[in-house]
Design brief:
By secondary structure, this protein is an alpha/beta fold. 30% of the residues lie in helices and 25% in strands. The strands form two sheets. The protein has a five-stranded mixed sheet, with helices on one face. It has a four-stranded mixed sheet with strand order 6-7-8-9, covered by helices on one side. Helix 1 runs parallel beside helix 2.
Length: 203
């Protein structure tokens, strides 16, 4: 499993997917995980056409590079879009779509997005995975629910700020320890496997 922890902020979707292809070409992994809202950043849009275009590009990349991709997109809903983790198989099959259930209200996320309500699992490579996004990590009951659902591992996509990255790493370990299961965290601030450095430029 490869986590594409990319720290750049992109001005457009095309640039984001060009960088994604660089990672996919070098990853040589069964699964590649991208951070929360990697391709679009925090520019909420209710355009169904834009959402479907981003979703289609993730599906195309999964098929082209023959790997399972954990991406994301902003799925239109009744009033506000949802922050959705998208999991696509190497064959282009959508294995899971999970809408973030705990919105980061201190940052006003609830003003731009609507929350999901369901825990979502998928199976790949003989393992069962649960899905979580960023602020979900602070709510242990979601991870306990995944344990009850038989998940072996929970994937956490995040756009956690550098100032609190130590909290992110601590909470990942806490969720794994208390549930005696694996947790994978992919953040926009982290170790860049292409440059070989972390968010502070350390190798």
């Amino acid at each position: 499993i490869c986590c594409a922890q990319i720290s750049q902020v992109y001005e457009d979707v095309d640039s984001a997917f060009m960088r994604a292809e660089e990672y996919l070409a070098s990853a040589n992994a069964d699964m590649v995980i991208f951070c929360e809202q990697y391709a679009t950043g925090w520019r909420p849009s209710t355009s169904a056409a834009d959402a479907e275009a981003v979703k289609s590009r993730w599906i195309s990349l999964a098929k082209e590079y023959q790997t399972c991709i954990v991406g994301s997109y902003q799925r239109p809903a009744d009033d506000k879009p949802q922050n959705v983790m998208l999991v696509v198989s190497p064959e282009g099959e959508v294995l899971a779509e999970y809408a973030k259930t705990h919105l980061f209200t201190p940052g006003g996320e609830d003003a731009a997005f609507s929350a999901g309500s369901d825990a979502v699992c998928f199976e790949y490579g003989g393992m069962k995975f649960g899905c979580a996004v960023c602020f979900d990590l602070r709510f242990p009951e979601l991870f306990r629910e995944y344990l009850k659902m038989g998940a072996h591992c929970v994937i956490v996509q995040a756009a956690w700020p550098a100032a609190r990255v130590a909290d992110f790493e601590l909470l990942l370990r806490a969720r794994a320890l208390e549930n005696r299961g694996y947790v994978i965290g992919c953040n926009c601030i982290g170790y860049d496997s292409l440059s070989g450095t972390d968010y502070l430029g350390r190798s």
